[in-house]
Specification:
Blueprint (H helix, E strand, L loop, with lengths): L2 E5 L5 E5 L4 H10 L6 E5 L5 H12 L3 E5 L6 E5 L7 E2 L1 H4 L9 H8 L1 E5 L12 H9 L3 E5 L2 E5 L7 E3 L5 H11 L5 E5 L5 H12 L3 E3 L6 E4 L7 E4 L4 H13 L3 E5 L7 H10 L2 E4 L3 E5 L10 E2 L11 H8 L4 E6 L8 H8 L4 E4 L2 E6 L7 E3 L3 H13 L3 E5 L2 H4 L5 H6 L4 E4 L8
Parallel strand pairs: 2-15, 3-14, 6-7, 10-11, 18-19, 22-23
Antiparallel strand pairs: 1-23, 1-24, 3-5, 4-5, 7-9, 8-9, 11-13, 12-13, 15-17, 16-17, 19-21, 20-21
This protein binds ligand EPZ.
Length: 427
């Protein structure tokens, strides 16, 4: 099982490049199911979840070419014949975002069998709202030995008000609605940039969508969609993670190839802490200020609020600010798995329900720590960058799910980090 070894103390200096957004690429790859034509997606990140999605689509009969390097992180997908429209448990259990094939499968073929995604480290992760939406569009949903089966001749337009704001729920049902008979109106939608990115691809494929990125989305169903070529958005969470890396290490880092407009809540919070930011068109320069960083509370909310996917990373920074930071996690019920490990490194964090209280500034010490989920892993890497000595992070396959070669990117700006077994400095 891969480990990282990180020696703390180096300020990060130079330019670090942001990859394409995993959470845009996943729904966009699933959207290829909606047409028998070829769909080409550029700027796909080279991360484990994308490989899982490739396997999932291929297992259903799709042709999926996943090229990197010369192919500029491109994927070519052709769902000509979907010989086996089933999302099997062996794959779904490794990535709950597999539920994103549910909507496009039933829209394209009239039937979908998807293994019920179990929970994960950060919460139960139900998909009841996905199912409720499909039923209101006329699908019959049954459950069979851990699989969900949805059937319909053709989905029909409906008026759907989401009980809770759900990102993949909005994406899944948007993909169902584009081929439905008639108009579908969605209210209380997720407004994340990943929803807007998916809608841009669907529109390029011939879908008729208004309001993506707002709380109300209108879709006029069409009878078929054609192929398209689309470039995936930059990953706002990877960019945010690198901004925190520059701040926590006391460096001077240029985070390049990002979309600053997607980072508003985080940028405002970092400035409140006293972090210096110079925001460009597609890059952000981050430096720690002249005065010590000071505590600033966060409360995670749906976009455009402070993103839950940046909560763990921000908490690592909070351990290095003067004062007390109150972190409220309002999206997931169990997203403080990083707290125990940060405390083992010398942090002073207490948890009460969905609120964590961070008392800083605490000098962090290196330790052997365990990664538990994708963003908790990122938080531990950030803490290790500033800890005294050599930290060993175990189970880094969690971080490989959503960060492309993070150790190489960080080493490129001066971090002393290697994947166990590497020799320092060797590529
Ligand atoms: C997406 O997950 C992201 N994943 C998550 O990123 C992200 O943390 C999350 O949105 C919130 O921003 C992808 O896009 C692949 P939700 P998703 O449905 O869609 C409840 C990462 O780190 N809910 O918006 O699964 C749910 O339990 C990952 O990259 C229901 O109750 O999240 C949660 O409390 C982690 N019923 C809340 O809504 C449903 O049917 C928000 O979940 C669906 C969701």
């Amino acid at each position: 099982m891969d480990k990282f070894v990180v020696r703390g103390g180096n300020p990060l200096l130079g330019t670090i490049k942001v990859s394409g957004a995993k959470n845009s690429a996943l729904p966009c790859m699933a959207a290829a199911i909606l047409t028998e034509d070829e769909v080409i997606l550029e700027n796909i990140p080279q991360v484990r979840d994308i490989e899982t999605e490739r396997k999932l689509l291929a297992s259903m009969g799709a042709e999926v070419e996943l090229g990197y390097g010369r192919a500029q992180h491109r994927t070519r997908i052709k769902c000509g014949i979907l010989s086996d429209p089933v999302a099997k448990y062996e794959i779904v259990k490794t990535m709950r975002a597999s539920s994103l094939v549910l909507g496009p499968l039933i829209a394209r073929t009239g039937i979908a069998r998807v293994a019920m995604p179990g929970g994960c480290a950060i919460g139960g992760r139900p998909i009841d709202l996905h199912i409720k939406g499909l039923e209101s569009m006329g699908a019959t949903v049954t459950y069979d030995h851990g699989y969900l089966e949805a059937r319909v001749d053709r989905l029909k337009g409906a008026h759907i008000v989401f009980d809770k704001i759900t990102v993949t729920g909005t994406e899944d049902l948007l993909m169902a609605a584009v081929l439905a008979d008639g108009e579908t109106i969605f209210e209380n939608c997720a407004r994340e940039p990943e929803v807007t990115d998916l809608a841009a691809l669907l529109t390029a494929m011939g879908a008729k969508i208004e309001g993506a990125g707002t709380s109300t989305i209108r879709v006029q169903g069409v009878t078929s969609l054609h192929g398209a070529r689309h470039r995936i958005n930059p990953d706002r969470i990877e960019a945010g993670t690198f901004l925190v890396a520059g701040a926590i290490s006391g460096g001077d880092l240029n985070v390049d190839g990002c979309e600053p407009a997607h980072l508003g809540a985080l940028l405002a919070k970092l400035e409140e802490c006293g972090v210096r930011l110079d925001v460009g068109k597609e890059s952000i320069r981050v430096r720690s200020g002249d005065t010590p960083l000071k505590a600033a509370d966060i409360s995670t909310e749906e976009y455009p609020g402070f993103p839950t996917d940046m909560q763990a990373q921000y908490m690592a920074l909070a351990t290095q600010t003067e004062g007390t930071t109150v972190v409220s996690e309002n999206i997931f019920e169990n997203r403080f798995m990083h707290v125990g490990e940060l405390n083992r490194m010398g942090a002073n964090i207490t948890v009460q329900g969905r609120t964590a209280t961070v008392r800083g500034k605490s000098p962090l010490q290196s330790a052997a720590v365990m990664c538990s989920d994708l963003r908790a892993s990122a938080s531990l890497v950030l803490a290790a960058l500033v800890a005294d000595g050599e930290t060993i992070l175990d189970r880094v396959y969690h971080i490989d799910r959503g960060y492309e070669r993070i150790e190489e990117k960080l080493r490129g700006v001066g971090a002393q980090i290697r994947r166990m077994g590497d020799v320092f400095g060797k590529k």
